[in-house]
From TrEMBL:
Swiss-Prot/TrEMBL keywords: Membrane, Transmembrane, Transmembrane helix
Stated name of the protein: ABC-2 type transporter transmembrane domain-containing protein
Transmembrane residue ranges: 21-44, 50-68, 89-119, 131-154, 166-188, 208-232
Key word tRNA-binding present: no
Domain ABC-2 type transporter transmembrane: 55-231
Superkingdom of this protein's organism: Bacteria
PANTHER family registered for this protein in UniProt: DOXORUBICIN RESISTANCE ABC TRANSPORTER PERMEASE PROTEIN DRRC-RELATED
Major localization class: membrane
Signal sequence segment: none
Amino acid sequence: MKAFLYGIALQWKLDIRSKTLLITCYIVPLLFFGVMGSIFTSVMPDSKETLIQSMTIFGVTMGALIGVPPSLAEIYRSDVKKIYRANGVPLYLGIVSINISAFLHLWIMSAIICIAAPLAFDAGIPENSGLYLAGLAVFTAASLAIASIIGLAVKDPTKTSMFSILIFLPSIMLSGIMFPVNLLPGSLETAGKFFPASWGYRCMTEQVFHFELFLPLLFLFAAAVIICAILLRRVSK
């Protein structure tokens, strides 16, 4: 247990010094929040009520899908994996520590948005804070699990970012944070339901708990964990 906690603490320190994580989990999401928050509230004053949720969805999606896969590829597609084996460290520790560290960083970024939005743009605070936090937790976990699939599945580390962007863009465009999903063609609205961002946004903007909104996120998370376990076994061979 001490070794496990030490591995997580070490990963946390490494992530703090990581330029990739700094950019994807803090700089770009917060810059997007500053710019788009001003635009949204000026063009669509009603967007103040869901500004925190919208900007959080963008930040978590970017931090997970763009920031996590390269870190996993750095471990499992390089000599770091050999170091793990030589020292008797279980290979799953890498993916677990990276995901826990990223989860904490994404929540810090989300907290900054939640505090700054009412001050900067007079944004509305989620009325049901418990439901908002529950939706954020499940959405973050599902996004990180899918990001882990990319990091483990793509054999060429140089192509990891390309695959991440291919998932990131439709996740954001079809999630409903930029414009209502009912304005999309039926096929695109349906396609958006295959991404965590769409369900995460709906969960975080609801005022009453609806288990059917959380169920797709839980299913995506469970399916992604199973796929990661299979991929991790292949990588270990």
